[in-house]
Design goal:
heterotrimer, A alpha+beta (237), B mainly alpha (108), C alpha+beta (390), A: 237 residues, alpha+beta, Ubiquitin-like (UB roll), Fumarate Reductase Iron-sulfur Protein, Chain B, domain 2, 2 domains, 5-stranded mixed sheet, two-stranded antiparallel ribbon, globular, disordered C terminus, B: 108 residues, mainly alpha, 3 helical TM bundles of succinate and fumarate reductases, 4 helices, binds flavin-adenine dinucleotide, binds protoporphyrin IX containing FE, binds iron/sulfur cluster, binds FE2/S2 (inorganic) cluster
Chain lengths: 237, 108, 390
């Protein structure tokens, strides 16, 4: 068991304003995650606010900056950080509500109109036979809607109108597996100044994505798709 | 220009640069120790095929660099009017650079 | 005249479904949740859309609720489930001895099932323990623990409900023996203020006992935590259950790109103080490997604990002996406190049914005649929850 210092960004409009960092000392077990630490601190300080839900990297709510890097707090073990000071801050490029809580509304304003179905075909265990009634095994999409990619993307930081890696990745998923969605419409949405052509292929998004969506790679896929016209959008315009 | 076409030209001019830049550097700076004296340069540039290639190089570099700079400036979430001014400014700059370069040829 | 106003305490699966039901019936609804929505037990559950088969022998009331709600949810929340069905598999002779009672239970509870041969089971799930002796297919599924309740909340919102997050109830306001509202603290501004209500619904899950105590009433609630373990990779595509009396680590729920093994069960007094028991991680691996031997090699993604809100009195040892059914308490009848209703127990799968019963009590108390419509109304997508409110 080791003692670790946590410096946590605190901000509450009108109450903790300007922001400050609060310092805490916490004992850590090998399995303790950053989210476990926040949960522990909240027992004594119920004013500490952060987003969380699933505790296993599935809901995507607990995104934050830990020592400057975008991570999901619930799957980040403190011991793995190998430092005795851990700085915790809210995600960048998203409006701040309180402490570590950011407003996801702008994220979904870009992402929802793409209309990616949340269920996809499962590629796991390709040789297994699904039951007749099931047809093909399905699973949830990889994207956790966590916003880590938006926080890491330098273009999102300077250009709020940029569609951003998550929405572009969702669009690419529709092109790859339309599931009844209209591919030309989605391609038209991303074939714009603020769409897939705004990206500078810095790939920070793919670097931080916690669930292997590879938004940067999918943006390049969209460009290829638009340039070669192999998709069903051929001849449009 | 549509953003797709813009990107295509950026990539195409970049590709062209790989060759032109390599050629330019080799001939001007590396081959036989490089072109060291004013006379060497004048003699080199007097050849017509060199004039064609160096002109192409000048145009490509200018276009590629300024279009690239424009792409970065547009990330700053400019208003439509400001974006138009950036495009205009960079175009004027590009024309001036190219005109100066071409004029230099004529002074030789 | 303004319709009556109901305050719902708790933004978990239950509170979300209650808000949706009441908003559809035309009431004004305010949900108050002390953290992010679904940050209590709901977001952390196993993700199993129960067919009811797990409770078909020992807890038939809960089993019937599950199969009924399972079928309704498929209708009202299309696109929210991995509908790959589930397999109950017998591995040992002891499991085989349980089989007749299991099949009889499925019949009694009206849970559709199909017995398949061990060969077929292995064709469907190549990683399954080859010692499988019998396999029964049931309509289990996988749900996203957060996104299904978000759909209830999004739809409630579109019917005018307000959802206040980071807003903690500190006091239940009473005039004599009648509840008149709540005093809350907004953790974004650290201001406190009061919200008036014609009825207050306590949907506090494992915290419902603490909340009821604020109104001076006692509800027999037993917080019963369990540990869940998520590993990388989908080792099976269908939900795998051990065919025996529910025990530890006997379900593997594939979800997204993970497989979640669960669960254990013990009891605590305070649902805020859940010690994640590290030794349970090894137990989950060990039990999970009895179903899918290869899972022993799987890389750990996370291990965590969550508290079931079980109805029962003190004296429970592990929580397994308590029913998974739910109860709605009208505290006027039970404790002589007007304007206060508690809904607790149940499963995330049965949240809509729990809400229907609760909303029936609420409208009856208000003297309204507004029928439940949540069996038919298709829910908005989860993304609608984040739409900017005008
Ligand atoms: C380990 C485990 C596995 C499970 N697996 C499954 C499964 O696979 N399938 C299934 O259907 N069910 C499952 N369940 C059951 C299911 O998770 C619960 O029955 C359900 O989530 C309870 O929802 P709820 O809304 O009643 O409670 P909660 O989700 O706990 O909601 C109560 C809310 O009240 C809030 N609150 C508390 N105090 C206050 C206050 N003073 N002011 C404001 N808000 C307050 C809390 O923050 C919390 O968000 C599982 C449970 C456990 C523990
Ligand atoms: C070897 C030769 C070169 C190649 C192959 C090349 C290729 C490219 C490509 C493909 C892009 C588009 C990247 C994007 O869309 O983000 C680009 C952008 C750019 N290039 Fe070049 N280039 C070359 C040389 C140069 C030179 C010599 C300059 C400067 C004078 C330059 C300046 C730029 C700038 C400013 C950008 C915009 C940066 C961005 O969009 O992120 N390039 N280049
Ligand atoms: S690859 Fe594109 S979207 Fe991703 S971080 Fe870089 S600029 Fe942003
Ligand atoms: S693409 Fe990856 S980082 Fe971006 S929101 Fe989705 S899961 Fe998060
Ligand atoms: S709490 Fe769900 S991803 Fe971390």
């Amino acid at each position: 068991m080791a003692e670790v210092t946590f410096k946590i960004y605190r901000y509450k409009p009108g109450a903790i304003d300007p922001p400050r960092y609060d310092t805490y000392r916490v004992s850590i077990e090998p399995h303790t995650t950053v989210l476990d630490v926040l949960e522990h601190l909240r027992l004594d300080d119920p004013t500490l606010t952060y987003r969380h839900s699933c505790h296993h990297g599935s809901c995507g709510t607990c995104g934050m900056l830990v020592n400057g890097k975008e991570v999901l707090a619930c799957v980040t073990r403190v011991a793995d950080l190998k430092t005795d000071t851990v700085v915790i801050e809210p995600l960048r490029h998203q409006p701040l509500i309180s402490d570590l809580v950011v407003d996801m509304t702008p994220f979904f304003e870009k992402y929802e109109p793409v209309g990616m179905p949340y269920i996809r075909e499962s590629e796991y265990l390709p040789h297994s036979q699904p039951p007749e009634e099931v047809g093909a095994y399905t699973r949830f999409e990889n994207c956790l809607e966590c916003g880590l990619c938006l926080s890491a993307c330098p273009v999102v930081g300077s250009d709020p109108d940029y569609l951003g890696p998550a929405a572009l990745a969702a669009a690419a998923r529709v092109v790859q597996e339309p599931r009844g969605q209209d591919v030309p419409t989605v391609l038209a949405m991303v074939d714009t100044e603020e769409g897939c052509w705004r990206c500078h292929a810095a790939m920070e998004c793919s670097e931080v994505c916690p669930n292997d969506v590879d938004p940067g790679g999918l943006i390049m896929f969209l460009r290829r798709e638009l340039l070669t016209g192999t998709s069903r959008s051929g001849g449009k315009r | 220009m549509r953003p797709k076409t813009q990107w295509l030209w950026q990539a195409f001019s970049g590709l062209l640069l790989v060759f032109l830049l390599a050629l330019h550097l080799t001939v001007n700076h590396f081959a036989a120790g490089g072109l060291l004296t004013y006379e060497d340069i004048v003699a080199y540039l007097a050849q017509p095929w060199v004039r064609v290639l160096e002109t192409l190089f000048l145009l490509t570099v200018t276009y590629h660099a300024l279009a690239g700079v424009r792409g970065i400036l547009l990330d700053l979430n400019l208003t439509t009017a400001a974006a138009r001014r950036v495009t205009l400014g960079l175009t004027v700059l590009g024309v001036l650079i190219c005109a100066y370069g071409l004029w230099l040829f004529t002074t030789l | 005249m303004n319709p009556p106003h109901v305050v719902v305490i708790g933004g978990g699966a239950t509170g979300a479904a209650v808000a949706h039901d009441l908003a559809l019936r035309g009431l004004r609804v305010t949900v108050v949740e002390r953290g992010e929505v679904t940050s209590g037990t709901t977001g952390r559950h196993h993700g199993l859309l129960h067919s009811g088969a797990r409770y078909a022998v020992k807890d038939q009331e809960s089993a019937k609720e599950c199969i009924e709600e399972n079928m309704i949810l498929r209708r009202i929340a299309p696109g929210s489930f991995e509908l790959n069905n589930g397999l109950f598999v017998a591995i040992t002779d002891e499991d085989m001895a349980y089989r007749p009672a299991f099949l009889e239970g499925l019949e009694t509870c009206g849970i559709p099932y199909k017995e398949i041969t061990p060969q077929e089971a292995l064709a469907r799930e190549p990683n399954l323990n080859p010692a499988v002796k019998a396999a029964v297919e049931v309509p289990d599924g996988t749900m996203d623990a957060m996104r299904l309740p978000l759909r209830f909340l999004a739809t409630a919102q579109s019917h005018g409900a307000r959802i206040l997050t980071y807003t903690e109830v500190e006091e239940i306001l009473m005039q004599g023996r009648t509840v008149t509202g709540v005093r809350v603290r907004d953790h974004v501004t650290e201001q406190t203020y009061t919200i008036g209500a014609d009825i207050v619904v306590n949907a506090g899950g494992a915290w419902a006992g603490k909340i009821a105590a604020l109104a001076g009433v006692d509800v027999p609630l037993q917080p019963s935590p369990g540990v869940l373990v998520a590993v990388y990779g989908r080792w099976n595509n269908m939900v795998l259950n051990r065919m025996h009396r529910s025990g530890d680590g006997d379900i593997i729920v594939p979800q997204r790109t993970l497989s979640v093994i669960g669960t254990s069960s013990w009891v605590v007094e305070d649902p805020d103080r859940l010690e994640m028991k590290a030794e349970h991680i090894d137990l989950m691996y060990e039990y999970g490997a009895q179903l899918v031997p290869a899972i022993r090699e799987a890389k750990l993604r996370a291990a965590w604990a969550a508290a079931r809100p079980l109805i029962g009195s003190g004296g429970a040892q592990t929580g397994r002996e308590l029913s998974r059914t739910f109860k709605c308490f009208d505290h006027a009848e039970r404790d002589g406190v007007e304007g206060f209703v508690t809904i607790a127990g149940g499963k995330a799968t049965t949240a809509r049914g729990m809400a229907e019963v609760t909303a029936n009590v609420v409208v009856k108390k208000l003297g309204l005649d507004a029928p439940c419509r949540t069996r038919e109304v298709v829910l908005l997508p989860h993304t609608a929850y984040y739409r900017r409110r005008a």
